[in-house]
Amino acid sequence: MTQGDQTTKSISDRRFGTTVAAPALPRPWIRLRSADEGNPAARMRGKLWVSPVEFVECSSETAFARGDTVMLTGSGLAPNETVEITFLQGETERSLGPTKASAIGALNARFPIPPDALADHGAQFRASAEHGANGNGIVLTSTPLQIFADSGDSDGDGVKDMCDTCPQLASDDLIDMDADGLGDPCDPCPTDPENGSAGDGKCADDNPNPLVPLSQPKS
Predict the structure, then answer these.
(1) Is the pLDDT higher at 210 or at 7?
(2) Beta strand pairing status for 69-74 and 92-100?
(3) Cα–Cα distance between 127 and 116 in angstroms, integer?
(4) What Cα–Cα distance (Å) separates residue 125 from each residue in 111, 140, 150, 166?
(5) pLDDT tens-digit series, residues 70-80
(6) CA dihedral 48, 52, 53, 57 (to 10 degrees)
(7) Alpha-carbon gap, residue 199 to 139, rounded angstroms
């Protein structure tokens, strides 16, 4: 039987012909290793934020060009621990090297988009550490990013093509009311995301852009 944290056993006392319970040595505490311990897939998960080093006017917070330097920020790390940064694209994982968490367990580090990253393909950054704030390790992952071949400005309006909702029309208006990827200045139907898909040459809401002709049905 067990009393408290000690295990007792019954022994016979021959002098009096009785059986008494004699205390045994306390059982040592045994640390049971979790089946997930040491497995990166079982580590804590968190968000890794990716932002441009310098502010640029952009219609998308996830658009970056090859070679751009970005700022990676995150939290939940152990103070001053080593953090491995990885660039993910498709099934390819590329190590960009280690960095260090701050004294309060935060990540603030600059890393470049690889110059040979695939354009027009999604990508992500990942930061992983063995310990994390709770000692079980942590993996921080960014949202999917849009990678462009370069940071050119085709229409010369000061807005990079990858950030411009009208890359072929010089305009400082990046508004896209119907969220169809075309900025209002170059959208034939600014409030019709289907842009007259009925084929009748009219915007569904009868609100055409007079400066951008809508394709007319063939007679």
Answers:
(1) 210
(2) unpaired
(3) 20
(4) 10, 8, 19, 28
(5) 999 999 999 99
(6) -150
(7) 49
pTM: 0.62
Distance (Å, rounded) from C-alpha 2 to C-alpha 109? 55
What is residue 42's predicted lDDT score, i.e. its pLDDT?
A: 63
Please identify, in words, the CATH class of the domain defined by 40-148.
Answer: mainly beta
**If we measure between CA atoms, which residue out of 117, 125, 112, 118 comes closest to residue 53?**
112
The contacts of residue 123 (CB under 8 Å, 6+ apart) are 87, 88, 89, 113, 117, 144, 145, 147
Q: Is 7 left (phi over 0), alpha (psi -120 to 50) or beta?
A: beta
Domain with CATH 2.60.40.1930 in the chain: 40-148
Least confident of 33-47, 84-98, 151-165: 33-47
Distance of alpha carbon 197 from alpha carbon 194, whole angstroms = 5
Strands 6-13 and 69-74 turn out to be unpaired
More confident residue, 215 or 101: 101
Residue 59 CB-half CA count within 13 A: 22
Query: Do 145 and 62 contact (CB within 8 A), yes or no?
Result: yes
Q: Measuring CA to CA, how many Å separate 94 from each of 106, 121, 125?
A: 23, 15, 10
Residue 23 is predicted with a pLDDT of 45
Query: Residue 139 is inside which H or E element, if any?
Result: strand 138-141
Higher pLDDT among residues 62 and 143, named by residue: 143
Instruction: Note the pLDDT tens digit of each residue in 31-51.
Output: 333 334 445 556 789 999 999
